[in-house]
Amino acid sequence: MKAAWFGKFGPANEVLEVSEMPDPVPAAGEVLVRLHTSGINPSDVKKRAGAFPNLLEGGPVVPNSDGAGVIVAVGNGVEGSRVGERVWVYQAQYGRRLGTAAGLLALDARRAVPLPIEAGFEVGACLGIPVMTAHRCVFADGPVDGQTLLVTGGAGRVGHYAIQWASQSGARVIATASKPHDVELCLASGASAVVNHREPGWGKDVLKANDGVPVDRVIEVEFGANLGEVLDCIRTGGVIATYSSTQVREPSLPFLRMMFMDLTIRMVIVYAMPEVAKTQAVEDINRWLREGRLTHRIAHVLPLDRIAEGNQLIERGGFGGCVVLSIDS
Hints:
- The protein is of the alpha/beta class.
- It has helices at residues 12-15, 42-49, 121-124, 127-139, 157-167, 180-189, 202-209, 223-231, 255-260, 275-290, 307-316, and strands at 2-6, 16-20, 30-40, 66-74, 86-89, 104-108, 112-114, 148-151, 172-176, 193-195, 215-220, 234-242, 264-267, 298-303, 322-326.
- Strands 3, 4, 5, 6, 7, 14 and 15 form a 7-stranded mixed sheet that branches.
- Helix 6 (180-189) links the parallel strand 9 (172-176) and strand 10.
- Helix 4 crosses helix 5.
- The longest helix has 16 residues, at 275-290.
C-alpha cells in the first residue's frame, strides 16, 4: 500500500515521506479499512514536530487519527457482514504508530463507525477529533437546554461544531470571532451573538450581549490567554470546558477568585474521554448526520503526496475548517 510516514521529528517538508509499505493484516477484533480520506488535525502536526518524544521508539509513524473508507476484511471475532461497510474511523494513531495517512488501516473494530450514506468520505475524515471534542465540551456537564454558552474561537474546527451542538440542543450561544467572515460563519452555525476577542475587555462585551447576565458555561480554545476575560463573564458555579491552551501553555490561575466563584474546570481531550462518552458522541454524530443537522467546513482537500503541505496549512492557521487528504489506493 501507499502510505505517508516519518521516521524522525522535524519540519513537515523535511521528515514526511510517501512510499510503498506492506499491507496490514487485521488481528482478532480488528477490521481492515481501505481508506479514501484522512483528516489532518493540530494534534497530528504536533506529534510530527516532536511533542511526544517516545513516539518513534517502535519505528516510523504513519500519521493522522481521523479518516474514512470501506471495510475490506475482518479479523477473528468480527462479523463478516461488516465487509463492504462504509465507515469513519477515529483514534487510529493513538497509543500506536499506524494512522490513517495510508491506503489501508487495520484497527479495533469499534473505532470504525458506520458512515451514514448522507455523508461523504471527506466529511467522514472530519468527525473524529473536531466533532467528538465539541460534543464532549458541550454535553459533559449535563443538558444545555435553557442555558447560555460562550464558545470562544467559534469559527474554528471545534468551535464550529460546538455552536451547532449547543444551539440545536436548546442553548443560547454567544461566540467570539475577530474577522467579519468568521462572524458570519458563527451566526450561520447558530450563534445568537458574536463578540470580538481581539478587543480589550471583550468579557464585558459578552455580558452586554447577554443583557448583563453571566454565561453558564464556556467552551474554551485558548484557556490561558482568555481566562481573565472569561472570569468577567461566567457565573458563579459555571463550567469552563477547555480543549486547548496553545498561546499560554502553562497558565497561572487566580485560585482564590476562581474558588470563590465555585467554578468547574473541565479539560477535554478526545483520546482520554470515557468509553461511555465516546459511544454517546458516536451515536449522536451518526443520528445528526442522518437527519442533516450538522454542517461541515472542509477548507482544503489535497492528495496524499501533498501531506507536508497539509501540515504546513495547519501550522500557519488563519482559516477554519478541516484539512483532508484524498487517498488514491
